[in-house]
Design goal:
There is one protein chain. This protein has two domains: 82 residues, 2-Layer Sandwich (hypothetical protein PF0899 fold); 34 residues, no CATH class. It has two helices and six strands; from the N terminus they run H-E-H-E-E-E-E-E. The strands form two sheets. A three-stranded mixed β-sheet has the order 2-1-6, covered by helices on one side. The protein has a three-stranded antiparallel β-sheet with strand order 4-3-5, with no helix packed on it. Strand 3 and strand 4 form a beta hairpin. The longest helix has 20 residues.
Amino acid sequence: MHESAIAKSILEIVSQRLHSIGAPATAHNVSVVFGEFRNAEPESVEFAFDNMKAFYPGAANCQLVINTISAMAQCKRAQHKYHPEASNAYRCPTCDSGIGNLLQGEELDVVNVVVELDQTE
């Protein structure tokens, strides 16, 4: 399952961040930018993340925050910018040409990990 591999990669980034602190810490949340055309289901990534996080020290209570980025394309013919949709076969609604360049919508980036140092008595 592709989504499980994505969730595992996110958890490994969280784990590396916790390790880099050099002191006991806990991850509260991790924010991810997820493009509309990423070819993976955000809900499935979240499901896999929630089922694997207990295996990563300091991440058991970590929440995954997914921010979805809409796709934006530029057409071949006139360089119009538009949102590609299946209903129009991903063609430019202004001039009917195909996608020349996908400007955004394939992102998958960890943008923030919120951690808290564990307080010891």
